[in-house]
Specification:
86% of the residues lie in helices and 0% in strands. By secondary structure, it is an all-alpha fold. The chain has a domain of 208 residues: MetI-like fold, CATH 1.10.3720.10. Helix 3 packs antiparallel against helix 4 and helix 3 packs across helix 11. The longest helix is centred in the first third of the chain and has 84 residues.
Length: 319
């Protein structure tokens, strides 16, 4: 017979073996869980650091674009102020930036009203010139005969100075009308939009032309589905150039009669009254207006060409 002592010892050994196995399995599971969580944490940290690196690269790229002109402008203004103060330059020759800023603040309400008038003339003329330039480019790209007719006309229109067009249009229309100024702007805008768009419409590969010809696609459908999408970057290049020219043309056209509600007329009246710092304040307003229109044109290009944003971000990410 087996006594109770050996049986109790065997039961104790079995319980000890079971507890050791449980501890081993628990430690292995913990090590596996820790390894998986560690790998997941490492990959998550890598993803976060990669995204942060891309954002940092984009921020540095934007800063590299914005910072140099800002620093250059500050340096120029500081040297300008120092030069005027050091050599006691008279205001009718060159007013100090501090005096110009003082007049800008005192005449801010008038500057806003006149900027609205000049901006509306520039905007309407810009839209008219953009639409007519685009339509003329589509016609010229589809017909060599029309292209040969429009090219010298566009060059001749571009050669006509603004100071010659503005008085003629003012005599053709009423002195209280804004049409002459807007026509001047439209003529100035037409040439860069037309030239750049025609160039873009001609950049279609021969393979695509042969494919569209084999599918019996008409000229206008080919222009709208193949040529025009490929010419969008060229169109916006002309648009950005024309946006600055539109403000210049609107301001200069206001020098020669018509309604006295724009920046150009205020510049001439202030200069005639020897209020030169005030005249420079209106010049500063014209510069701000031109920069604003140019930035809006750049924003529209950014919105209309998402594939270029994707390629730029992709290259930044790969770098």
């Amino acid at each position: 017979m087996t006594g109770p002592g050996p049986r109790l010892a065997a039961d104790a050994r079995s319980v000890a073996d079971a507890s050791d196995a449980a501890d081993a399995s628990g430690a292995g599971g913990a090590r596996r869980a820790g390894g998986v969580s560690g790998a997941g944490g490492a990959s998550g940290a890598g993803g976060v650091s990669g995204a942060g690196g891309v954002r940092g690269a984009r921020a540095r790229a934007r800063l590299a674009v914005v910072l140099p002109p800002v620093v250059f402008g500050i340096v120029v203004v500081a040297l300008w102020e120092a030069y005027v103060q050091a050599y006691d330059i008279k205001p009718y020759l060159l007013p100090a930036p501090s005096e110009i800023w003082t007049q800008f603040r005192h005449s801010f309400r008038v500057i806003v009203d006149t900027s609205k008038a000049t901006g509306s003339n520039a905007l309407v003329g810009l839209v008219v010139g953009l639409v007519t330039g685009l339509l003329a480019a589509l016609v010229a790209a589809s017909s060599k005969i029309v292209d040969g007719l429009l090219a010298p006309i566009a060059a001749a229109m571009n050669a006509i100075p603004i100071i010659a067009l503005a008085p003629l249009f003012n005599s053709m229309f009423s002195t209280t009308s804004s049409v002459p100024r807007r026509l001047v702007v439209a003529i100035v805008v037409f040439f860069p939009v037309y030239v750049n768009t025609v160039r873009g419409l001609r950049q279609v590969p021969d393979v695509q032309r042969e494919l569209m010809r084999s599918l019996a696609v008409g000229r206008w459908r080919f222009a709208c589905t193949v040529q025009l999408p490929g010419a969008i970057p060229y169109l916006f290049t002309g648009f950005r150039v024309a946006s600055s020219l539109a403000v210049i043309a609107a301001v200069v056209a206001e020098y020669f009669g018509g309604r006295q509600n724009g920046l150009g007329s205020r510049i001439t009246s202030a200069a005639a009254n020897t209020a030169y710092p005030r005249a420079w304040a209106f010049v500063l307003a014209a510069c701000v207006l031109g920069i604003a229109v140019y930035l809006i044109a750049g924003l529209l290009e950014w919105l209309a060409t998402p594939w270029r944003r994707g390629s730029g971000s992709g290259s930044t990410a790969r770098t």
